[in-house]
């Protein structure tokens, strides 16, 4: 009976983590729809999850495991949207140029903002230097 304890406990933690993600998502969608917010329900759900984790003070093991597995599969989750772009018919050259420009500019803005945020979080942008 004890041989099942480890795997069963891991399974229960995983299911608990998945349930937390699902509950936050569904609750966020319901709140967004009920209040007719201009923000997608999934974003409201992520904010609820963030608030809950901040109040709890740490990330539970089951939630960390499920989140890690989902992050490893993140590229596959974007695949259907990326493939769908190629089935857009009737787009002119100007439409494709605008789409390409939006993708490039959006990517560059994201890279710059991520670099600035990382610099700020790591404390490299505050003028401290070991050379001084």
UniProtKB/TrEMBL annotation:
One of its GO terms (cellular component) is plasma membrane. Its main location: membrane. It is a multi-pass membrane protein. It is found in: Cell membrane. Pfam families: LrgA (PF03788). The chain crosses the membrane at residues 39-58, 70-90, 96-118. Keywords: Cell membrane, Membrane, Transmembrane, Transmembrane helix. This is CidA/LrgA family protein.
């Amino acid at each position: 009976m004890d041989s099942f304890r480890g795997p069963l406990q891991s399974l229960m933690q995983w299911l608990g983590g998945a349930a937390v993600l699902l509950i936050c998502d569904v609750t966020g969608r319901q709140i967004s729809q009920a209040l007719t917010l201009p923000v997608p329900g999934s974003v409201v759900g992520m904010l609820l999850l963030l608030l809950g984790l901040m109040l709890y003070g740490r990330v539970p093991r089951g939630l960390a495991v499920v989140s890690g597995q989902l992050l490893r599969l993140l590229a596959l989750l974007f695949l259907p949207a990326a493939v769908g772009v190629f089935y857009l018919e009737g787009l002119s050259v100007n439409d494709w140029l605008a789409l390409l420009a939006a993708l490039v500019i959006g990517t560059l803005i994201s890279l710059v903002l991520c670099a600035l945020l990382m610099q700020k979080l790591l404390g490299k942008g505050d003028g401290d230097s070991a050379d001084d």
